[in-house]
Each structure stands twice: as structure tokens, then as C-alpha cells.
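[worker-b] picked up task from shared queue
[worker-b] task type: protein-ligand structure
[worker-b] ligand name resolved to zinc ion; SMILES cross-checked against name lookup, match
[worker-b] sequence length check passed
[worker-b] input payload:
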Amino acid sequence: MAPGPRRHGQTRQSQASEAGASRPRLTPYDLAVPAPVDPWTAFLQWLQTIIIPDWNGLIQLLPLLLIVGVVGPGLSLIALYWVFVQVTNRRGKVSVADPEPVVVAQLADGSYDYPANAPYCPTHHLVYPATARECPINSEELVVRCPIDSSVRVASQQLCRTCGTRYQLGAAISPVVVRRRGAPPAGGAAVA
Ligand SMILES: [Zn+2]
Ligand SMILES: [Zn+2]
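[worker-b] inference finished, payload out:
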């Protein structure tokens, strides 16, 4: 080989001749494009990275694995115990819900049979719990019917002006509605 700078074309040609010794009939185009790796070889190399463990890395990870192996099961046991306590505590627990207004059915003559001493909204035909004073739908004042003379007064007014009886709605009874869990018993929905 002659010393000194060689021209590009010469280098290309010498490489081509060297490669041509092992693999004949290689054009300069084949040399310019990198030969693709055999898919099977690539797969084997990739498999090697998975199968053969990196022992140094594993030993460095040992404390972490120890933590995960000890703390993980402990935490899951605690979580399981918590779920167990929640499930067993659920039985017998009473959940109180806000009393809801009851829709009054219309009678055959077109009137509504509102119960006495219960605030109701004459517009929406809803009977509210004794503590309610106005309809939440349109902030309309609720009215109440006197059980003695059936005169209607405003629910916030305690005194019946017809018979002079003073009623304090919701003073003695505080309605407690127990919310049922799950489906009502057979016939329960029909009764309600
Ligand atoms: Zn109303
Ligand atoms: Zn009255």
C-alpha cells in the first residue's frame, strides 16, 4: 500500500475488493447500505438479555426485593383485615337519611287528600316532613291542614285561627328514616 492520502474512490474500491473475497459479487450499493441483521440472530440476542440474569444488578436490588416481599404481604394483610372489619361492622348499623317528600295521589273528584298536621305544597302536591316550612322546588310557603276543623293555614304559623288550637309541627316527633340497604323485601316496595 502506498503511503499518503488516498482518494475516496480508491478506498471504496479496496473495501469492495476485501468484502468481495468473503462474499462475492457485492456491488458498491450493497456496501453502502448496512447489511440487515439476521432476524433469528437478533431474536437470540434479545432472548439472551432476558434469560441470563444480571447478577450484580439483582444483588443490588436485594434490599428492595426484601422490602417488597415483607412489606407488601404485610400491607395486603392489613388491607384484608380492614375489609373484614368493614364487612362485619356493616351489619346492624343504621344509616339515617333525610325524610323525603311524599307525593299525594289525586282523588277521583280531582282533589287531593292531604294528611292533617303535615306541611304540604298545594302546587306540587307533596307532603313534607314536619320540620319543613317551604317547598324546595320554588321556595313556596307550605301550608298545613288543621285536624279538627280542616282549615288550612301556613305551616310556619302554629296557631289555627279557626279553632284556636296551637300546633307545633315536628316538636314531639322527629321522623327518622332508615335507609334500606339493597333490595327491599318481597312485597316491601308494593307496601311502600
Ligand atoms: Zn311546591
Ligand atoms: Zn283548627
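[worker-b] attaching auto-annotations
[worker-b] The mean pLDDT is 78.
[worker-b] releasing lock
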